[in-house]
Prior knowledge:
By secondary structure, this protein is mainly beta. It has one helix at about 55-65; strands at about 5-15, 25, 25-30, 35-40, 45, 75-80, 85-95.
Amino acid sequence: MFEGVTHTREIVRAVLVDENYNVCLEKLKDDDGFGPRDYYETPGGGIKPGESHFDALHREIAEEVGYKCEVIEHIADVHDYYNLIKRKNHNYFYLV
């Protein structure tokens, strides 16, 4: 475990596939307090207190992609560290 972690963020991520097997990725291109960013990531975000993983996935997909979705299955859990802001991330990936 990395030292200096002050908090943990619970996050849902969607491997979002349409009926033609196209996968949705979001392009992040910015230069902010975290430095320059220019990459792709799966849609998703933080789970609000009291919110289920499925409810968070539905909300995040609606906010970020603009669609309703069907959660098919849980794929994996990935735990990582965001050392710049002393945060541990618990990422829960779902096929959607």
